[in-house]
Design brief:
Oligomer: single chain
Largest sheet: 8 strands, mixed
Order of helices and strands: EEEEEEHEHEHHHEHEHH
Radius of gyration: 18 Å
Structural class: alpha/beta
Mean pLDDT: 84
Helix content: 25-40%
Low-confidence stretches: 1-45
Length: about 300
């Protein structure tokens, strides 16, 4: 998720039904062996996971305001990778098929994801999900085969960059000024229209995802202990944003492109810029991103 200077433009996501739902209970105990279901117990809650394919495991962490398998804002466009890999696509708490939470928390999400890495997996995170993925990688570095961050909202890593510092100040002011009593329809409409997008129908699913994102602990405030990251291969992917609406590019795109550049330098990652894409290069240019992921994962396997 990106946060923007407009009062209501804090989340962006459109919801569609999940496919091949797999229920995962996270618990910190042993995994039960089931054909298409994995269970852990954790905090007596259930998170929803979609699994596809066979081969090395790849865990995907979606951004805010959507869920894992959404075609446009989740990882629906990455499902063809299941031809060669085992895709593990959890819905973060408060999103998709996972239960409601009082307040979405990137630290709790990171614990959930770290447990899903058990046995080793490639790890991919988008936007605020990139922050969750980074934190999960610091909790279980020995279980990460590789780390890919797509348009990561890890602003604290690059907080000394002027563009990022200015965006952080705008974000904080925007969150503080959001009216608490917006209707579902107004919340969804303002969320999309404020950055030049046509608003979709404010379905209950979309309104829930939007409110969850609006009420979450902001991932761009997360402090990430980079010294705990392992020596596994790392890749940062960002769009070039040339086709985005001007206000969206200025207030959302330029800071997050700078964040991606600085973060890649500081974690020792390769940087891939995807032309013709904005905040969702994995769905806007899946031909480029899927090819890059496939090559990156296979190269990691040959190195390992």
């Amino acid at each position: 998720m990106l946060y923007y200077p407009s009062k209501a433009e804090l989340v962006h996501g459109i919801v569609q039904p999940l496919v091949d739902d797999v229920e995962v209970v996270l618990a910190g105990f042993a995994q039960l062996s089931l054909p298409r279901r994995a269970r852990w117990r954790h905090d007596h809650r259930v998170i929803h996971v979609t699994e596809r394919g066979n081969g090395e495991r790849a865990v995907f962490v979606h951004g805010s305001g959507s869920w894992a398998t959404h075609d446009a804002f989740g990882f629906g466009a990455q499902l063809p990778l299941a031809e060669d890999f085992r895709l593990v696509l959890p819905d973060r708490r408060g999103y998709g098929g996972s239960p409601d939470v009082e307040r979405s928390d990137y630290a709790q999400d990171a614990e959930d994801i770290a447990e899903l890495l058990d046995g080793g997996a490639h790890l991919v995170g988008h936007s605020s999900g990139g922050v969750v993925a980074l934190l999960a990688a610091t909790r279980a570095p020995g279980s990460v085969r590789s780390l890919t961050l797509i348009e990561p909202a890890c602003f604290q890593i690059a907080a000394d960059a002027p563009l990022v510092a200015a965006a952080l100040e705008r974000n904080r002011a925007a969150v503080a000024s959001v009216p608490p009593d917006l209707s579902d329809a107004d919340l969804v409409r303002l969320n999309f229209e404020s950055v030049g997008f046509e608003a979709p129908e404010p379905t209950p699913e979309l309104a829930r995802a939007t409110r969850t994102a609006l009420n979450e602990f902001p991932a761009w405030e997360a402090q990430i202990p980079l010294d705990r990251l392992g020596a596994f291969p790392k890749l940062v992917i960002t769009g070039t944003w040339e086709d985005a609406p001007q206000a969206y590019r200025e207030h959302g795109g330029e800071p997050i492109m700078e964040c991606a550049r600085v973060s890649a330098e500081r974690i020792g990652a390769e940087l891939l810029r995807v032309a013709g894409a904005s905040h969702w290069p994995h769905s806007q240019r899946p031909d480029v991103v899927n090819a890059a992921l496939r090559e990156f994962w296979k190269a990691g396997a040959s190195r390992g």
